[in-house]
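[agent] plan:
  1. take the single chain provided in the ticket
  2. run structure prediction with default settings
  3. attach structure tokens to the ticket
  4. add a short note for the reviewer (M.T.)
[agent] executing step 1
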Amino acid sequence: MRVAFGEFLLDSETRELCRAGRALDLTPKAFDLLAMLIANRPRIVTKAELQERLWPDSFVVDKNLANLVSEIRDALGEDASNPRIIRTAHRVGYAFQHRDGRDEPRHQSARRNERIFRLMWDDQHITLEEGEYVIGRDPDADVYVDSPSVSRRHAVLRITGHQACVEDLGSRNGTFVGDRRIDSSSALQNGDAIRVGSVVLTFRAVVAPGSTKSAG
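[agent] step 2 finished; step 3 output follows
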């Protein structure tokens, strides 16, 4: 199941909830709850149904379910007092109510973008769409890396079509791809290690489901 709603996209195959191409953090049970509500939209899914699916053969109190809903709303930036996406049916259950929720066929997505690019470091990861991503210690950087060894605007990663490259922005400690310090734009391949200061980020380029194009 792949469903777009507003600026969000839920993909049950990759188990990702993305906002404008950037993966959001959700615990596995919170993701399963959101996917279940979307799959049953616009029907109200009762608490009993949700508890049976999420905690089979276990007894849990309603608070566990409410905590998962709060986690989802936080990820979606939703105000519980004025919900736009997850509606609470008091004492009954919950429903997905976003008007723009629509299924997006996976084969169409694969034709549009045969590769999926990701950047991973520490316990973080983001999905990269076409465009430029400044890597740096500046809180406004597209890829914020909190390390004194990293310059405020350290490097820029560019996605163009099915190609990706990285370029140093005159940083103090340099940018490396593998063991090689780069002084100009450098093409990236799946699995490349990008070192900015003392921090290593891993670049991934994977084939989108349904595509036969090699990721290199």
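[agent] step 4 note for reviewer: Confidence is low (pLDDT under 50) at residues 103-113, 211-216.
[agent] ticket updated
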